[in-house]
Amino acid sequence: MILLEPNSFVLEETLLARFVSEKPEIVDITLVDFDNVVYKVQTSAEQRTLLNLSVEIKYYNEVLAYGAEDILKREYGAYLVPTVNPQYQITLQFNLEQLPADKAALAKHVSMLKRNVLSSSFLRAFEFWESQQEGAGPLMATHYRDSEAIYVQAQHDRVTVIFSTLFKEEVDRVLGKVFLQEFVDARRQA
Predict the structure, then answer these.
(1) Which three-class secondary structure state does DSSP give residue 123?
(2) What is the rounded CA–CA span in Å between residue 135 and residue 19?
(3) What string of H, E and C letters represents the secondary structure of 24-43?
């Protein structure tokens, strides 16, 4: 069984290191996820106790139409601040002197930001499905990488999800076959 974690482990570790540090330092770290989501973790020399996390997600404008902003407000409302750099669509700000007691849980929760944003089309489709409306809901496309997309559509009795992937190298094609075989095997066992 293949287990894919829903969070960014590197982001979680980076934030946790800053959250538990006894002495606030000047920080300027850029992290890039496998699907080109860019995380910028930084403080300024003037305000070392204010840690900013700015996020650039190429498909952000697409998921806004599916309710991503509402999800961000619900999950991170206390930390959301207006974005200052136009390269980034989301900025969270943490006062390092006023963090909750469970700093590890906060770092884990924030490291799931990309997953929460990407879930907007799924949540919208599940809401349509739960409403038992006749017909089909809107086809929602999220182009999470160049030449690759996730399509989600709800109907009255199911939600259909299609992952459009492009395997450029032979090794990737072999891994893709193994991954799909896992789905086949899981379905046989169900």
Answers:
(1) helix
(2) 48
(3) CCCCEEEEECCCCCEEEEEC
Q: Which of 74, 9, 64 is nearest to 39 (CA)?
A: 9
49: its two tokens: 């106790």
Buried b (16+ CB within 10 A) or exposed e, 130-160: eeeeeeebeebbbebbeeebbebbbeeeebe
How many residues can be counted in the chain? Answer: 190
Tokens 């900013």 map to which residue? 52
Other Cβ atoms less than 10 A from the Cβ of 94: the count is 23
pTM here?
Answer: 0.84
Could you tell me which of 66, 34, 73 has the C-alpha nearest to residue 151?
66
What would the two tokens of residue 126 be? 């599940």
pLDDT tens column, 124-162: 999 888 887 788 888 999 998 888 899 999 988 889 999
Distance CA 148, CA 26 (A): 37
